[in-house]
Design brief:
single chain, 175 residues, alpha+beta, 36% helix, globular
Length: 175
């Protein structure tokens, strides 16, 4: 490379480097099918524009609830109850989740306590192997995602305030 750098100007060296880099990128993409997503990437369940759905009446006692849904709902009830009591039961979480939650346990429990009393938990659906729920508290409506590992421990737990439902646009007045 030393011989090349003496015989060619710096501009040609940059062009050569750029063409080698773009050639490598093309070689990687040549056999791949056209796609908007990268291999092995998972979408964030909370990214993108929220889909609006019509309100669903929540039943007092669920009927014929799937076992996985019941497990997720019951686990969320227990996590919320523990947080509102001031401490989490880390035996319910995977080692990775425990490692992530221990340093923020105080902030997490304080946030959940600030929501007020738990009112309802409604199943929304399933995405990427995790269950999504709408959890209503006295003072806030939230969305939660919960997933379990092979040992039936909580491996994914995300929550956020539910985005406001957009109202339908008012009809245009004809003058």
């Amino acid at each position: 490379m030393r011989i090349l750098s003496k015989t060619m100007g710096p501009g040609l060296g940059l062009v050569l480097a750029a063409s080698l880099i773009s050639g490598a990128a093309l070689a990687q993409d040549a056999g791949a099918p056209a796609s908007d997503t990268a291999a092995a990437s998972l979408p964030n369940a909370f990214d993108g524009t929220p889909r609006t759905a019509p309100p669903v009446a929540v039943q007092e006692t669920p009927t014929a609830e799937a076992p996985d849904v019941a497990r997720g709902r019951e686990t969320l009830e227990a996590v919320v109850a523990d947080a509102q009591d001031g401490s989490l039961d880390f035996s319910a979480f995977s080692e990775d989740m425990t490692t992530r939650l221990r340093p923020v346990e105080g902030d997490l429990t304080a946030a959940i306590q600030s929501f007020g009393a738990l009112e309802t938990i409604a199943y929304v659906g399933r995405q990427n192997g995790a269950d999504m729920f709408e959890v209503r508290f006295d003072s806030i409506l939230t969305q939660w995602v919960i997933g379990f590992d092979a040992d039936d421990r909580i491996a994914v737990l995300l929550f956020r305030e539910a985005p406001p439902v957009e109202a339908a646009p008012a009809p245009a007045s004809g003058s």
